[in-house]
């Protein structure tokens, strides 16, 4: 079904790519979704998709399973965030995961997620060395 909604999903994925151009490629994201390696969750208003979330189950070196949410994009977050987190939690439990994890390209994400019990775990930094 990814192909059926991709025309609306692609611009949202590209909005994330604009903030992290070296981290994601819409073509690769689509391939991972179509293959079933990752799962797409869409939020819509009638026929229009207003937000997307990509889910990815990871098994850590310790053997612990977690549900990553590496991509979230869209509008009207305050209207759907709680419901989405409930759905993501249910999916995670169904898949044997013990927690949700996400990646934030901006510090403002913590402000939005803290009321739901999220906490900062890692901080990624970089130093460009050139080619």
Q: What is the share of helical residues? A: 25-40%
Enumerate the strands of the largest sheet in spatial order, edge to edge or round the barrel.
1-2-3-4
* Secondary-structure content class: alpha+beta
Average pLDDT works out at 89
Number of DSSP E strands: 4
* Number of domain units: 1
Outline the structure in words.
- The chain has 131 residues and is of the alpha+beta class.
- It has a single domain, classed as Aminopeptidase.
- Helices cover 40% and strands 25% of the residues.
- It is built from four helices and four strands, in the order ααβββαβα.
- It has helices at 2-19, 26-35, 77-94, 108-113; strands spanning 39-45, 48-59, 65-74, 99-102.
- Strands 1-2-3-4 form a four-stranded mixed β-sheet, sandwiched between helices.
- A hairpin with a 2-residue loop joins strand 1 (39-45) and strand 2 (48-59).
- Helix 1 (2-19) packs antiparallel against helix 2 (26-35).
- The termini are far apart.
- 15% of the residues are buried.
- The model has no long low-confidence stretch (mean pLDDT 89).
